[in-house]
Structure formats: C-alpha cells, structure tokens
Design a protein that fits this description.
4 domains; mainly alpha; 527 residues; two-stranded antiparallel ribbon; 2 strands; Growth Hormone, Chain: A
Length: 527
Amino acid sequence: MAKASQLNPPPLQGSARAWGTIALSLAIFMNVLDSSIANVSLPAIAGDLGVSVNQGTWVITSFGVSNAIALPLTGWLAQRFGQVRLFITSVLLFVLSSFLCGLAPNMTMLIIFRALQGFVAGPMIPLSQGLLLASYPPALAGLAMGLWAITTLVAPVVGPLLGGWITDNINWSWIFYINIPVGFLSAFMVWTIYHKRESVTHKLPIDSVGLGLLVIWVGALQIMLDKGKELDWFQSPLVLGLGIVALVGCALFLAWELTEEHPVVELRLFKRRNFWSGTLAIGVGYGLVFGNIVLLPLWLQQFMGYPSIDAGMLLAPVGLFAIILSPIVGKNVNRVDPRWLASFAFVVFAVVLLMRSHFNTQADFGTLMLPTVVQGIAMAFFFIPLTVILLSGIAPDKIPAAAGLSSFVRIVAGSFGTSIATTVWQDRAALHHAQLTEAIHLGNATATQVLAGMSDAGLTSGQALAQVNRLVDQQAYMLAANDVFYASALIFLLLIPVVWISRPRLAGRTVGAGSSGVNADAAAGAH
C-alpha cells in the first residue's frame, strides 16, 4: 500500500498547490524563454566574439540539437533517479550552464555551454507536466494543463523582446545571467513542496547502444534541418551525408529499441491509439504553426521594409487571447470532448492562414495584425486538448516518458516545419519571379510606360531595370508566402480526422466508445 501511495501521491491542497504551480511555472518559463531569447542577440554575440553571424547561428543550433536528444530520455531518467530529483537537478544544471554561457570567452566555448544547457533543459518540460498533473485532482487536470500552457505560450513572445532590450541596454551575457535567480528560486520551492512526493525508482540498466544511436541520428537530423537551406540542401555533400546518417541511424535505433528489454526510449507508447494520434496531430500542427511563425517576420523584414522590432510586435498579440482563454479551456476540457476543442483549433488556424493567404504588398499594420490576434484563440484550444488526448489512459509513472517523447516529436516537427516552409517559400518565389518577368517586354504597354517614367525621372536603363526587379521580387515573395499560408490552411483541415481516431477518457468514461470506466479506457488506449 505504501508503494502504491508513493506511486500515486494524493493531490496537493490549497496554498501548497498554488505555490507548487508557481514553482514549476518559473522553471518552465526560464526554459522556454531561453530557447528564443538568444535569437535577436545573435549579431551582438557574433560581433563581440569576433565571428560571422552565420557562425553565430550555432548558438541556437547547439541548444536545439542537444535539447532534442535529451527529451526522449526523460522517461528512462525519471524511472532511474525519480521525477522530483531529476527535475531539481535539471534546473540547477541549467542555472550552472547559463552562468557558463554568460562567461564564455569565445564562440567555441559558448557553443559547448549552450549544448550543455539544451541537454539539461530536456527533462524539465515533460517532468513539469507530470508533477503538475499529480498536484491536481483528476477533475482539475485540464486546469493544470491550462496554467502550464499559459507559461509555454507567453515565454516565446517575451523572449525576443526581452533579449533585444537586454542586448541594447545592458550586455548580451545578461540574457543568460537572468536565469540564475529564477532557477535557484524555482529549485528551492520545488524541493520544499515536492521532496516528499518522489516517484518510485528502478535500477534500470543503461541502454548504451540505444543512447548512442539516438545521439547519432537525432544530432545528424537536427544539423541537417538547421543548415540545409543555407547549404542548398542535398546539393551539398555535407547535408546529403547527414541525411544518410540520420536515416540509417533512425532505422537501427527503431530496430534496437523495439527489441530491447529496457529501452532508453519507450517507443511502445506508440501502440496506444490516443498517444500516437494525439502526438501526430500536435506534431504536424506545431510544425505548421512554427514554420509560419518563422516565415511571416522574414517576409515582413526582407520584402515589406519592417524593422525587426515592428515585426516582433506584429507577432506579440498571439499571446493575448491565448492567456485569457487557456484557463477557461483547461477548466472545461474534462466536460467537453477534447476532440471537438482540438478540431475547433484546427479550423481557426485554417481561417487565420486563409486570411494571410490574401495579404498583398499594400497591407497596413492593422490588416497584418488581425490574423495574429485571432491565432491566439487557436493556440488556447490547441495544446491543452491535444495534451489531454495523448496522455489519456497513461499511468502516472509513464507520464514523463510520454510527455518527453511527444515533446521530442513536436520539437523535431518544428524543425521540419521551419525548413519546409522557408524552402517552399524560396522555390515558389523563384517560380513566381519567372512568371512575372515574362510579362516585362517591349510589347507590354504597362511595362514600357513604367520604364519610360523611370527614365524621365533620371534613372539609367540599368537602374530602371534594377528598380523593376526589386518590385518583381517583392511581388514574387508575397505570392510565394500566400502559397505557403494557403497550403498550411488545407493541411490543418486534413488534421481534423486524425484527432477523431483517438478515444480519450472523459469524466470516468471513454469518449466515443460503447463501454465506460477504467477497462474501457485501457482498451481504447492500447489500440
């Protein structure tokens, strides 16, 4: 009985639950903030350390690669060392690595310390979900996920703004130093509240082969996705080699893990209908969202003349409705079928992207901002229901493994989404450019009139053609962005049937199944 009590501790009550939520949220805010805060500081970091901005991008790449490797290890590490001990260790090592990043004397050391920071950050997000869910009674699990979602939605918006302000007004090192007091406070609070609620540990052997294969194929895949566009994808021997390593490594990893008695990554979770359908939906959906979030400011800055701060302000309102609605969605996710809520999110995302697919080069600030504001509604209905679906029917001791594995899929999908969106954008822009330039010839009265007007204004023929080419470029990239937005909207609508494959548990019964209770839920999750 004592072991069962330790495995499933009773929910926290009153102020302990409130302070526990704050403690976990501080750590997650720090974690998610650091994944985006360095982006706008890259020019300052590269200049200060005497390298090019392209070399400086390894500050971001190294964090992402090591973070992606660590995420699926969370379940094994939690079973081996305990959820609370692992979380606090992760936070304290994150603080240490942040301090080292701020002290880094050169780019090589900064990249090494950022890789360490990304790796130790891996377990924090999935463990926070497990600890938070255990802090609330089952009826309030949705509210717990709503509060968790607020933190993960606000931090990416605050990150670039805070990073830019710190870099401009203090020094780039302080984007790392600010983690130190936050991390220590979070670790102290979590230990005070949760140390008596440690999970059961098991002396699991180390799956060294699985771990080695994971590092190889995930590292190769992430570097390929980060550097592919810069190196012209598979025209580059390096990218081609990385792709082969990732493919072969992944195949060997799957074969090994599915036959290993104590795998480092619990791939058998994908046997559960709720887990694989929810993870697929949240992975593809996040890839689409992230790809378009990257594409929009690129288009605004490069071809619409927006400074970086204005482009950032156009993305900031996405958090408005997300913050307001997330707690409401969380409180009601156990009353309303989460599949309906997720489907609503996909429809709103599709509407937002269809609105963007009608942008033109004359669009004003308000027109560009409106879809971003509406997108906040979709964000509130996206993470919470899909997280509830994919974790439905999973035992508490397996939640860190499930959350870590789904987070890994989401992060990799985000990398795919970014690479695919920007590559398709470039390819479609080249196509539109070729089509538009076909119309510029002496037989076209409009083109002749425009060139004549430029000539009358004092431009040489070469200058006039260069000016026309810039206008054609602007139109081509706008049309290409519209193509990506439109295609993304259609894919969101195609994701709706994926959600309805699941059979999530709701208020003691399995939604969409004829039977009810725990047995029905277990049966639904196992298929």
